[in-house]
Design a protein that fits this description.
heterotrimer; A alpha/beta; B mainly alpha; C mainly alpha; B: mainly alpha; MetI-like fold; 2 domains; 3-stranded antiparallel β-sheet; two-stranded antiparallel sheet; 13 helices; 7 strands; disordered C terminus; C: mainly alpha; 2 strands
């Protein structure tokens, strides 16, 4: 593990206890032996189908779920082994952006309250200072100041995701986990948010863990790609090499499923 | 549209409650003042035309006197018409419990005005109905507050922490729901002192009512807490390092507000009825304090049933209130959404 | 089958818990039946003490509870101080009368509510439906106490109905047919009060359940197939609406039971209600416990019946899938 690595996941396993159909307790293995590392200011994309364990992994790294076994080293410390109070101190540095901003923002709060919440929870400043910082962040993500007092219901999908991003940035995190953060948006919103993310990464020096089922998006945004299949990492490598020469069957399948642009299809038909 | 309905019902209820709250102003007489010489008077007739055939703009009543040669038959004394005055000085009372006043909305100078007749002790029924409403409604409101606080607390603990706490609390709730609530109420009342003073009786009734009804609200709150716990904004707040208490009080419990409000609108009438039932049977608020329940107690005698029909009127006083609360509950149930953000129609793409 | 067994077991544990709960409440009692006797100077303190010991009122709670459970298994359910007899026979007689009232009222209420609810759902929004909705709202706002007292006054002043009780004087000398008629005549008012108080809620729920189904996609598909309105209503919509209605049936039994308490007391119908009241005023401990338990048994039985019906009607439950 080099000094440069921000995040190092080592043999992480997660099993869920569920009630089987007969009423007996059963264990479902969501993650088995996940290992990878992520250097600062890089973007790693975790690609996989539904049920491959991507979100579970995201929750574990963000500290919202406990792993069954394994280690998660963040900036040198194993956060999987920390107690709740110690974890609380590390949390600001790893932030999670959820898929559906309609769900991840409290519908009864105003935009200003939502974005200032993390600062107030962490008690870093008083209410007026927090509001000031929140205003700055909202400007950063291009939310007009006139909309500060409105509740999430009055924003569009793309704007809500910007709110979520602004909120996550308020604690000045080092690692941002984007759990299908663009999947609930329409095409134009997707590209605008993607560009915003790239711009923020460059100016703030953020590290991204980008989780998606959309290979095309991953190819666009990520430096490295890890392909997940049923709780394991099937293949991991630089974006270029994965795209050019996929080794595993699952990777080939996912690549084949990406819709090609219109002109390309016509060409193939003609041929 | 539903929000307007809710406001309308709330407004109607507010008016009704204001009527009862300012009972002193609207009641022409003191509720506990007796007149042993005028028991069971029929409701007074309001006249506009006097015995000489003259029309008066201001309505008036005749005082009552015993018929000659009778012990209990009353008749009107045509000689002295008593005009009905408005905003008139009358018996002293305390508005809202502490402001001393003498003005009443209407009354007569002189003889007592028995708008709805009198009871066995010659007390004015109309005034007693208004004052009785204070006791019954307060019992209902207080009882509902206790039940909802208890239910919300228990439901929140069961839903948020889960595990053995959830199992124990919900099994107990099932138990309470399995018992027919009126029987449970009576059973509980049975094991407490039978004859107590009015104040203690009132609080006893409220406590008993409150203790019985917590199970259903608890289950409902638990359901809301269970689903709210999994919402992403709660997870996000945990991701910012929020404590359990913060999550419960700032994010999760506010989601239960619509459930609690609807339950309140349903429980208040139920609890008012509970107090009425207990008092009617002599297990609630005792004489001489009036409550809608004990005002009806005299109807248990056959003689009253057959001859003095106006003693039934306190029973009807409760109907407009119940209508109001039930209407409010319906409107609230319609208004309550999923708590999720609804898409604004035609919102801009970004 | 397993579903039913599970339900029976649940019911048993519920009853056990209910009996424990009521027994627990009894420990709060600051007085008991014999306090009255103590105030009577003609009965010596020794007699009172002996009577208390005889009925084991001095023993700690667990012992008393065990003793009571033992008496339940012997079919006695404790001892009534006021009536000087075992509790169970007393309760049975009264329970029969209460059952007569509540079962009749339940059947009648549902018989009326179903067609009215269906009519309301199919004529939704029309003026006549609005009138129905408003009158049911008014009825809903009128509690049983008000209804039964009102009906009683009507009976007393018009003399059209018997005013209270279950039988007339001279009942014993009537023929069987006349006896039935007599009881039925006495039942008119209490049943009317119960039905009127239950009707609004039932109509509302039937209407809501049916309205929900009438809007459902599967019904629209069936309509597109050209089925008649009648078939659609009775063979499709009503069947689908059956589930919540059957659950409501179980619930309505409980509500009717609670309502019957006050109706019985007002109309002097010799059921569990007046017995419970007497026992409360006389501090007859075991009768109170027995009364509460009996009513619980009826409630649980009603819900169990509803579960049985659900099992029979809904194939998903037979297959073992969760229905709620």
């Amino acid at each position: 593990m080099s000094k440069e690595t921000l995040l190092c996941v080592n043999e992480v396993t997660k099993r869920f206890k569920v009630k089987g159909p007969a009423g007996a307790a059963a264990e479902v293995p969501a993650l088995s032996g996940i290992s990878f590392s992520l250097s600062p200011q890089r973007t790693l994309a975790l690609v996989g189908e539904s049920g491959s364990g991507k979100s579970t992994l995201a929750q574990c790294i963000a500290g919202l779920e406990r792993v069954t076994s394994g280690e998660i080293f963040f900036a040198g410390r194993d956060i999987a082994a920390l107690g709740e109070t110690q974890l609380r101190r590390v949390r600001p540095q790893i932030q999670l952006i959820f898929q559906d901003p309609a769900n991840s923002l409290n519908p009864r709060w105003s935009a200003l309250e939502i974005v200032s919440e993390p600062l107030l929870i962490q008690r870093r400043c008083n209410k007026s200072e927090a509001s000031g910082k929140a205003c700055e962040l909202l400007k950063r993500v291009a939310i007009p100041t006139g909309k500060l007092g409105q509740s999430p219901g009055e924003f569009s999908g793309g704007q809500r995701q910007r709110l979520a991003i602004a909120r996550a940035l308020s604690l000045e995190p080092k690692l941002l986990i984007l759990d299908e953060a663009l999947s609930a948006l329409d095409c134009s919103a997707q590209s605008q948010i993607a560009n915003l993310l790239l711009e923020l990464q460059a100016s703030l020096g953020l590290t991204y863990l980008f989780i998606t089922h959309d290979f095309a998006l991953a190819a666009h945004l990520a430096d490295e790609i890890a392909v997940m299949d049923r709780g394991r990492i099937a293949e991991i490598g630089e974006t270029e090499s994965i795209l050019r020469a996929p080794q595993q069957e699952i990777t080939r399948r996912l690549l084949a499923a990406v819709p090609k642009p219109f002109s390309a299809r016509q060409d193939s038909q003609v041929r | 549209m539903s929000r307007r309905q809710v406001t309308r019902w709330l407004g109607a209820l507010a008016v009704l409650h204001a009527l009862i709250l300012c009972a002193g102003f609207f009641a022409p007489n003191d509720p506990e003042e007796q007149d042993r010489e005028r028991p069971y008077l029929a409701p007074v007739k309001i006249h506009f035309v006097d015995s000489q055939g003259h029309f008066h703009l201001r309505p008036f009543v005749y005082p009552t006197r015993l018929q000659t040669g009778s012990f209990d038959q009353f008749e009107e004394d045509n000689s002295t018409p008593l005009p009905l005055r408005f905003v008139v000085a009358g018996p002293r009372y305390r508005l809202l419990g502490f402001i001393p006043c003498r003005r009443h909305l209407f009354g007569t100078d002189g003889a007592r005005l028995y708008l709805l007749g009198s009871d066995a002790y010659g007390r004015d029924l109309f005034s007693r109905i208004l004052y009785g409403g204070q006791i019954s409604l307060l019992a209902g409101l207080l009882g509902a507050t206790i039940t909802l606080s208890l239910g919300a607390g228990i439901g929140a603990i069961a839903g948020y922490y889960g595990g053995w706490r959830d199992a124990v609390l919900m099994r107990t709730a099932e138990l309470f729901v399995a018992l027919p609530w009126l029987y449970l109420l009576f059973g509980l009342r049975a094991f407490l002192p039978l004859t107590v003073g009015p104040l203690e009786a009132f609080f006893l009734v409220v406590a008993v009512i409150g203790a019985v009804g917590w199970a259903r609200p608890a289950r409902l709150v638990r359901g809301v807490v269970l689903s709210a716990k999994e919402r992403d904004f709660v997870r996000a707040a945990r991701g910012f390092g929020a404590s359990d208490r913060y999550l419960l009080f700032r994010h999760i419990l506010p989601q239960t507000s619509s459930v609690l409000l609807t339950q309140a609108a349903l429980l208040v009438p139920q609890f008012v009825l509970a107090e009425m039932t207990l008092s009617f049977l002599g297990l609630g608020v005792p004489e001489p304090v009036p409550s809608w329940g004990n005002l009806l107690a005299s109807l248990q005698q056959y003689s009253v049933l057959i001859s003095y029909w106006w003693m039934y009127l306190p029973a009807l006083a409760v109907v407009p209130f119940f209508l109001g609360y039930l209407g409010l509950a319906s409107a609230l149930q319609e208004e309550g959404g999923t708590g999720k953000i609804e898409e604004a129609p035609g919102g801009s793409p970004l | 089958m397993r579903f039913l067994l599970r339900r029976v077991l649940q019911a048993f544990f519920l009853l056990l818990g209910a009996s424990l709960l009521t027994f627990l409440f009894s420990t709060l009692a600051p007085g008991n039946y014999f306090d009255e006797m103590r105030l009577n100077p003609q009965i010596s303190a020794n007699t009172v003490a002996a009577l208390r010991a005889q009925h084991q009122l001095n023993s700690p709670l667990p012992v008393r509870y065990a003793h009571w459970v033992n008496s339940v298994t012997h079919g006695e359910m404790g001892f009534s101080f006021a009536y000087n007899s075992p509790v169970a026979p007393l309760l049975w007689v009264r329970a029969r009368n209460t059952l007569l009232l509540t079962v009749t009222a339940t059947l009648l209420a549902w018989l009326l509510a179903l067609p009215m609810g269906i009519w309301s759902a199919t004529h939704a929004g029309e003026l006549s439906d609005r009138a129905l909705t408003w009158s049911t709202a008014g009825l809903l706002a009128t509690p049983e106490l008000v209804l039964s007292l009102g009906l009683l006054i009507v009976a007393v002043r018009t003399g059209w109905f018997p005013t209270g009780g279950m039988v007339s004087i001279g009942y014993g000398s009537l023929s069987l047919f006349q006896k039935i008629c007599d009881v039925a005549a006495h039942m008119i008012l209490p049943v009317a009060a119960l039905v009127l108080s239950a009707l609004p809620i039932l109509i509302r729920h039937v209407r809501a359940a049916l309205a929900e189904q009438l809007d459902a996609p599967f019904l629209r598909v069936a309509a597109a197939h050209g089925l008649s309105r009648r078939t659609l209503l009775y063979r499709y919509a009503l069947r689908a609406a059956a589930n919540p209605l059957i659950s409501l049936f179980g619930f309505s039994v409980g509500a009717l039971l609670s309502g019957s308490l006050i109706v019985e007391v007002v109309m002097s119908w010799p059921g569990l209600g007046p017995l419970l009241l007497e026992a409360i005023l006389a501090r007859d401990l075991y009768v109170v416990i027995g009364g509460v338990l009996f009513s619980t048994i009826f409630l649980i039985a009603g819900n169990f019946l509803a579960d049985l019906l659900l099992y029979w009607v809904d194939p998903r439950i037979r297959a073992g899938a969760p229905s709620r």
